[in-house]
Amino acid sequence: MKRSITILLLLTAAFSAAAGQTQGRRGAETAEAVEEIKRLERTWLIDSYKPNDMSAFDRIVADDFLITHSGGKVLTKAEKRADIIASHNPNSPPSPSDVFRIEDSSVKVRVYGDAAVSIGYIVEKYTYQGKEINDQVRFTNTYIRRQGRRQVVASQLTRLKQK
Hints:
This protein is of the alpha+beta class. Helices cover 39% and strands 37% of the residues. It contains 3 helices and 7 strands.
């Protein structure tokens, strides 16, 4: 009887240790995924909006991507790409893209295996037609890992009233 109890306790300890290691690996993988998503957010939302080099945008944004803007307008990847390029037309008003920044402290990421959802906000500060613009744009982005890399597949933006 003592031998059976000893074996049972040893098996329980072994399974507990194995489960703890698995949870530790999952925690590390989740932390790595969170940091990866935060890097992708900065690269996609700030750095990739360059009309003469859309390579980062093309890499991060999935082909089946959809974005919903504050006014309800929904764009595909191709439409959003064209919108970015058009907004940088030298004949159009200056674009504020150089003055966007993400408040890193605002970005929260939840990882669900191959999917991840991020929320946060972008701060816009610039002068347009003599008027100081100081806005926040809240975002919710959904990422999917496909073929070993994460891409954004959906985005929703909400512009908050100017401060």
